[in-house]
Design brief:
The complex comprises the extracytoplasmic solute receptor protein and the two transmembrane proteins. The protein is mainly alpha-helical. It has helices at 52-64, 66-84, 92-113, 122-126, 129-162, 182-209.
């Protein structure tokens, strides 16, 4: 006598070929989620600014961040022209260097404005609010003095890049076949950035002298 074949099993039968019923699938849980926020992506903390001037710096820096995207776009254009059409450009490389340099220059004022600069807070977190205020005053004073000295040094550098030995206005150029005045422009941007930071540090110093504490940095640091 021939054993029953699997072809004799009716469709939709709850038994498998060996004649055993399939394992029951686990029932989906219909209970409430104990932690509704667990599935949410944590939002980035807003930037902490200490003055209206800082808020303006942050907004300008947000627009300046697009310079990196422009640098990437023209770099792709250079690759296509060089390797796809055999027509390399003479301006892309120097333009990319200038755009990235400008974005880096504005990164300093943006970090100082939004309180996202790198700090060592071991002592700061270990003391009380009154001593923290004195630390704020000391930090702001040192920052202002440093930025003031950097502004003077940047002015000397920019003056040498924008004037010839006779004292006449003449921008320093790259010396390549295209020969743009980007070296002088970048040095001028460095001067602008450290001068902005000098104003920021002075405003912060005045605020700390008046007894206004520095705001806490947002969670996550400089992300």
């Amino acid at each position: 006598m021939t054993p029953p074949s699997s072809h004799n099993t009716p469709a939709g039968s709850p038994h498998d070929r060996a004649g055993r019923p399939p394992d029951p699938s686990p029932e989906p849980s219909h209970g409430p989620n104990p932690d509704p926020s667990a599935d949410r992506t944590p939002e980035r903390a807003p930037d902490v600014v200490r003055s209206r001037f800082d808020r303006g710096v942050v907004r300008v820096a947000q627009f300046a961040a697009w310079l990196v995207f422009i640098a990437m776009a023209i770099s792709v254009y250079e690759v296509i022209m060089r390797y796809g059409f055999g027509a390399p450009t003479s301006w892309v490389h120097e333009t990319v260097v200038m755009l990235v340099a400008v974005s880096f220059c504005l990164g300093g004022p943006a970090a100082l404005a939004s309180n996202r600069h790198i700090r060592v807070k071991v002592l700061y977190d270990a003391v009380g609010p009154r001593f923290r205020l004195w630390l704020d005053r000391f930090n702001d004073l040192v920052t202002f003095g440093f930025c003031l000295g950097m502004t003077y040094a940047a002015w000397v550098m920019f003056y040498g890049a924008s004037h010839n030995p006779l004292g006449e206005w003449q921008l320093e150029r790259s010396g390549t076949s295209w020969n743009p005045p980007f070296p002088a422009l970048v040095k001028g941007m460095i001067l602008t950035a450290v001068a902005i930071m000098c104003v920021q540090a002075l405003i912060h110093l005045i605020q700390s002298i008046k007894g206004k504490p520095a705001p806490d940095a947002p969670e996550g640091g400089a992300d």
